[in-house]
Amino acid sequence: MAHLLIVDDEDLTVKRLRDSIDWGSLGVTRVFTAFSMSQAQKVFGKERVDIMLCDIEMPAGSGLELLHWMRERGYGTISIFLTGHANFAYAKEALSLETMEYILKPVSFEEVKQAVGKAAARLKDMQSEKGDRQLAFFRQLVQGEVLPLPDSIRRAAHRLHVSITPEYACVPVLAASKTDFQKQEENSFWDTRPAVVNIAADSFPQLLCRPLLLSRQILLLFPGGMPREALSQALWSFLETAAAALLAEFLLCAGREVPLEGLRPEILTLLQTERNIVKSSGVFFFPSQREGGPPAWAEPKPDFPLWTILLGQGEPKGATAHVKRYLESCSQLNRDFLSRFYQHYLQMLGIFLNQKQIPFQKLEGFFQEDAAHSLPQLLAWVDGVNRQVCRLLELGDDATVVERAKAYVKSHALGEISRNQVSESIHVSPEYLSRVFRQKTGQSLVEYITDVKMNAAKEMLTHSDKPVSQIAAELGYGNFSYFSQLFRDHFSLSPSEFRRRNPPQPPD
Asked: N or C end of the chain: smaller count of CB under 10 Å?
């Protein structure tokens, strides 16, 4: 999913763009803001930015200067410019820097939505295309379709447009199970391989390509230069994550670091060696055949099955109490341990909710990696997410969620209403509420709130003699001009014109 940065020196413009558009429906999961070039540069230094919506005319560094700075440093961010002047020189320079759109102010939300939606689609295509090319190259190399010779490897890389040379070093790792063909067993490795692939792709962003499915194993290709100890800890962490998510055991066999021309022979050696292992799980390094030891934080084992049983019985306090006892029994509690436990617990909840046919996205408000900052914070997070899971079990289907959201908005038409207020009132995350509301009603939650308020304004204009400005304030609109424009958009009349045509009715 895409990350968006809004850059403009006008506070009101930034706020309206950030708050008035349902970004989630456009494939945007995070929205950052900046009011100057220097602030935007700091965002780039800390966060991933996929799409930038930027004003051109800004003091202390224009949008074009910011784009020059980005391109010089290799940022491939898709850029959309906003400007108050139809300046051909601006447009020409923006296009030379590979800007996707050039929008004139005052901006239309619909125009912005279309541009960002197009940018998100292009971003997805770019990422998918690059991943497909990398995957095709390594699949051909592993399957022997590319000869393990420098010239053959270069030609294949050039043909598939991947930036890889024959000298590129990598470490192959096989994920396998001794129960591959026992398909009658529930949660056999054979049945869970697609899920293992997804967990591996999420756990190891540094992989040279997406995990490759072999006949009975999964192949992970790590870049060279990774210390053995770091790789061992990462692989053990992955086993813990997969065990929490799938309740299944399997083993990992890591080979030597080899150049690309030696990759296929190394994999063939690993395949032969893996057949001789009798253990059902663990991390093994070859050719030394030294078994990688689990890091200290991996013991004692968490009791995921018991915790899911307690949650299924509607006992969040009981599940939290068991988790608390487990964590306090661990001898070496540190940030690394707490962070991994947080990830494992989320994996467990994802599988549990999937079994109950509840979308995991309903927990989006609880995706809080800073929860692992300390043991008290983690326990507080566990308590909160456990309670939320049990609420979700009671809530029912998505249609009920939408109806409860509508009821809350109608009963709180007076005063300001935010998406967060509505989501908190019905105990779901703001992101999930926005998505399911649009799916079920065809409009965003923000649009529905505006409809309810405009209808309330019409009733108040018709059945009271309150000044229009007072009605706007009571409905939560501090900006009278903005309120008037919204009313005109809905009823093709200004509030004053509407009242003149529909004077307040005297009481009976």
From this structure: C
**Judgement on whether residues 228 and 287 belong to the same structural domain of the protein:** yes
* 269 and 199 part of one domain: yes
More confident residue, 337 or 487: 487
Query: What is the C-alpha separation between 87 and 94, in angstroms, rounded?
Result: 11
Instruction: Label the pairing between strands 51-55 and 78-83.
Output: parallel
**Range with top average pLDDT, 18-32, 273-287, 350-364:** 18-32
pLDDT digits (tens, 9 = 90+) for 214-266: 877 889 999 988 888 889 888 988 888 887 777 777 788 899 999 988 888 88
Both 464 and 415 in one domain: the answer is yes
Structure-model confidence comparison of residues 359 and 441, the more confident one:
441
Q: For residue 451, what are the CA distances in angstroms to 84, 264, 306?
A: 30, 62, 47
What are the φ/ψ torsions at residue 251 (nearest 5 degrees)? -120, 160
Q: Is the dihedral of CA 452, 453, 454, 459 positive or negative?
A: positive
Q: How far apart are the first and last CA of the chain?
A: 57
Which structural domain range is residue 353 located in?
Answer: 304-395
- Pair (85, 108) in one structural domain: yes
Domain boundary residue, one of 100, 127, 154: 127
Contact 40, 66 (CB under 8 A): yes
Q: For the chain, what is the domain count?
A: 4
For residue 417, which phi and psi values (nearest 5 degrees)? -130, 130
Output the pTM of the full model.
0.41
Q: How many CB atoms lie within 10 A of CB 59?
A: 8
* DSSP code of residue 149: S
Euclidean distance between CA atoms 320 and 385, whole angstroms = 10
Asked if residue 300 has a cis previous peptide bond (ω within 30° of 0), the answer is yes
**CATH number for the domain that contains residue 450:** 1.10.10.60
Q: Cα separation of 265 and 424, whole Å?
A: 57
Within a domain: 488:
yes
- Rounded CA separation 348/451 (Å): 40
CATH label of the domain that carries residue 173:
3.30.70
Q: Which residues contact 65 (CB under 8 A, 6 or more apart)?
A: 37
| Cβ proximity of 381 and 342 under 8 Å | yes
The two beta strands, 169-176 and 218-223, are antiparallel
In-domain check, residue 161 = no
The SS3 call for residue 27 is coil
The mean pLDDT of 464-486, rounded to a whole number, is 88
Residue 296 confidence class, pLDDT cut points 50, 70, 90: very low
Sorted by sequence, the CB contacts under 8 Å of residue 83 that are 6+ apart come out as: 55, 56, 57, 63, 90, 102, 103, 104, 105
Closest CA to 361 of 323, 400, 388: 388
- Residue 98, pLDDT score: 58
Task: Give the span between the Cα atoms of 217 and 62, in whole angstroms.
Answer: 53
